[in-house]
Amino acid sequence: MPASPRPARAGSVRVAAWQRQRLGDAERRRIMEAARRLERRSHLPGLHGGALRRTGILVLWTLLYRGPSRHGVCDPSIGQLAAWSGCARSTVQLALQRIEAAGIMGHVRRGLVVAGRWCQWTSAYLFASPEQWTVSDTEARSAEVSVVKKKAQEGRRGGERSALPAAEYAALAVKWGLLPAG
């Protein structure tokens, strides 16, 4: 039987074969265990979570176990992911960014050109095996919170001076009457 030029249902869109990924239960479990290990390994004391954080683990589990259809395509919308995981849409978007930054998965934007404008309808999510995941240059945190930023915050809490040059600091102290004019 020749391939039909039309999709099976009105409004449905063909999915490329490379956008399908059938993961067995063992592969899903292996990805989740590796993600939890990454989260524990990248957690720093005094900060919330590691590279993925709690919501990243939750959204990853949702993608792995609720996202794929019976045809092997994992393409839930942000709204579906938010409803399934019990998080806000913005939280799901941040979690997806952290998951992608860790190299656990990639996404393919899919859409149509309607009246000369690009309209996205969903993204396809493809998972990498744990051996292919990227390692952060800090070995600890995502780009959102750096060790340098934490050290700068600790320095300010310790009673050290601000980042102003000494001359400006002295001029302001004189202006406010904290030091005698000299």
Q: Enumerate how many helices there are, as a single number.
A: 6
Q: What general outline do the C-alpha atoms trace?
A: elongated
CATH topology name of one domain: Arc Repressor Mutant, subunit A
Biggest sheet details: 2 strands, antiparallel
The parts where pLDDT drops under 50 for at least 5 residues are 137-144
Rg, please?
Answer: 24 Å
- Total number of β-strand segments? 2
CATH architect. name of one domain = Orthogonal Bundle
Query: What is the CATH first-level class name of one domain?
Result: Mainly Alpha
User: Could you tell me the mean pLDDT?
Assistant: 77
Oligomer: single chain
Distance between the ends: 95 Å
Taken in chain order, the helices and strands follow as HHHHEEHH
Helix content: 40-55%
Strand portion: 5-15%
The strand order across the widest sheet is 1-2
Classification by helices and strands = alpha+beta
Protein name: Helix-turn-helix domain-containing protein
